[in-house]
Amino acid sequence: MMSIIVNAQQGDINFGDLPRPVPSISSLPTYTESPISLATGIPDISYPLLSLLTNDKGISANLSLQYHPANMDETQAGSEVGMGWTMFSGGVISREIVDELDERYDDASWQYYQKNKFNDVYYYNLPGISGKFKIERNTDNNTFKVLNLTPNNIKIEYTRNSNNATLIINSFTITDGNGFKYLFNDYGQSRSYRNAITSGTLYKSAFYLTQVKNAANVALLSFEYQKENKMVPGSTNILYQICKVKNITSPGLGSIVIDYNYDQTLENTMNDPYSITKVSLKNSIGNIIGQYGFEYMMMGYSIFGSIETANKRTLTRIHKINLENLTGPPLETTKLLYSQLPYFSPENSYGPGDPCNATEGVNLARYAVKTLNKIVMPTGGMVEYNYDANEYYTNKSLPGYATPGSFGDPSVQYMSTFKGIAVNTKQTNTYTFQVTGDPGVLKKIYITFEATKYKPVFADDSFVDYSINGGSVSAYTCYNYNDPELEGNARSLKNFDLYPGTYTITMSGTGGYGEMTLQEIKNIPAPFRNASNNNPQLGIRIKNVKYYNSEFNPTLQKSTDYNYNVFSDPNSVSGSIFYPERESSSTVGTPFVLYKNVKVTNSGNNGYVNYYFKTPNDYPKFPYTHNGSNVSFWPYYNITRAGVQEKNEAYNAQNKPVSASLYDFSFETLNDFPDIAVDGGFTKKAYLKSSKITTKNYQDNNRYVENKVETEFNTTNFRVASVKETSSDGSISEKYISYPIGLAGYQNLENANMIGVPVITEIKNNGKVISRTEVKYNGAIGVYPSSVIAVNPNDNSTKTVVRYDEYDSRGNIKQMTSNPDVAGGNPSVIIWGYNQSFPIAKIEGAKLSDIGTLADDIVLKSNADVDASSEVTLMNALDSFRNNPGVKNFIITTYTYDPMIGITTVTPATGLREIYKYDKNGRLISVVDVNGNIIKDYKYNTKPQL
Prior knowledge:
By secondary structure, this protein is mainly β. Among the domains are: about 15-270, no CATH class; about 415-525, Jelly Rolls (Sandwich), CATH 2.60.120; about 810-945, no CATH class. The chain has seven helices and 60 strands. The two termini are about 40 Å apart. About 35% of the residues are buried. Mean pLDDT is about 90; it is low at about 1-25, about 345-350 and about 360-365.
């Protein structure tokens, strides 16, 4: 992998050969493998951009940027939004190639054909859902099935092409626990040349979300992509096919449009040649509601093990466009500044390390990672993020940890010069030096010799060298250089293992003059800090966050500091190294650090909070049998690898406790899941079975008020099954939730995978049932609620609280009746306008049969409401509708909107209309009454940036 990255600088990169073959989405797995958490030291740095609503409140398309420092290292490409940043714009199933491509044997007639085991890992990212899965192949009967590797309640299905030699997937459908269907019918392609035929193998490198539907198969969102083929030079073969989301459309409401710039010069480099230049939110008629623009620059990034740097796209500015003047200055600008962070800074290292190893392998002291350092906010204030290298615990208090006989740890050892000798063979050929130390204990001595040779009188070549004690002391030569010029230079570095005593250096050769520098290994004063940070793969952690009033001449306003030492031993770091689950026996994965203790201190005399976490080490391995072999089993690893909060304790500046929270989690292994290799053994997926959270709020004299919340989770869909709250006065409230799984009358919901939808809720106070409600789904459309039933806890009698009488084609309620068991109940009609997207009239007391076609005109005029003039026409039509004799016996409230911005008028039955006014940037500026009197007024002041 590292050789591929280095070769990229020579312009021969092919992403199809990389484990993560799509640069625009290669950062997504990082959020699964290295989650944002205090336990990992990864801060939450995100930037919400645009939000596109749908006709279902459970689904929306939210465009946002998220930063992750682990996506800044040398293995990452400059994505479409720059290094470290990810644009979340809907949904994607990305792919990581494990070992070799799963479907590489796609021709059964090929002489080397075989039915290979499938190892590739697929990562799915949806709104509110993320995880990974694999395809399992039964090589005996050549069948395939999806193995979801994340405990949740989604269902994953696929379609395939007709090739029976292997599985070539055409599309995926993911159905979540609420019945929403995510269709992945589009894809990008890459070509792999790894262990393939000369023309390579073209494969689907990622699958892209094309549509979201509800359980009734109503389309809520659709995605359109820009697709282009890039050809192998001098060939008709596709090298890769890009698939960039271009439009996200919510039927009847609006769309998000994403614009790109293509830079051909970035082909074959560690950059996506496409960058996002602009994102726009538009209403249903194409008017821009919100817009952001992005600026980038190419920056140099270190390449591990090389003095070279790679130029990669870096996001530097985010502009919120001023819709009142599209070509003028932005309404807001967020500026992003980056810094080069060395893994080994002076405070972390006391010397350059063993000089004999300085020219071998990688010089870690020179390796640095670029990271986001400062964000200048639109208000002019500045937030500064400072990082340092991740550390892990190493016991450095053991006897003989650091000795003068070997150089092993530059954080506690350093090279000390104890003698310098001016050498001139014309004056003398012998020199002496003294080695101090414990008698009988070897000490490593380094001698650096640099000399200018004398020109020999009777020889054709020249050299100058030395020996110790007449050559009886053996040397390890680190390097030895002799200039071929007769009066050239001679240089050498040797080390010797010597006992304390006096030694004689004897010069040999044709002579010369110069300097000898004698060094020994010394230790810093004990006790040593029990921490190591000598592995750049471990990445960085947040050190502190500082808040300033300005970028220029900044004044510190406040700061937050993070300390990762063991609370009971400040001389020891609380971090330990772990590895991700291994999807193949040949993969190891990138190590990461989890911290058991994190102290967060706020400036300004605001005290601090101690956070305690459990890690996989708190759940020890035990003996296990895997495929007939005796191995170790590491329980609950998929949960604990992110750090499990154990407790937190808040203190004021005087170290007095303010509050505390204790977390008691119980996990359960999912034995039906396959074994997964982990460091030192195997594991299976697990889920959170129950939790108990106890909070204490301290008062004077260390007295406190205590509350407890105990939660049990459903074993089938992993949703909340019950919640028990115990207050400080001893009162207990309980809530029990039942889901469709196995319940009579709810098979239709199970069939639609709506197994996460609560259907029965029961409430208890101090052990007594006070309410029980059931949501029925018995209507013509079996996935929409038909009624809500209340059960009397005293006699188990039932009554219908509300009945949903009729829905329209988009799932909107057209008529509902409250208390229908009592004299026919109280019906209400809701008229939906703006292409069935918003309610424009609520008519209390009426049925649809009472309205008939009376509302047809207001529906048509709402569909045509595209500007101020057409809105006035709609308001007049609504007034006429309210005054129609056919509805005079009903209570009517009417509404108008600027779709994707907000409500513009509300007219209740009294006729006292409220009007909501917005500027061109969609910001609410005032609320006025029907007479023009201002009820509320809003002002926005943003400091322009230089």
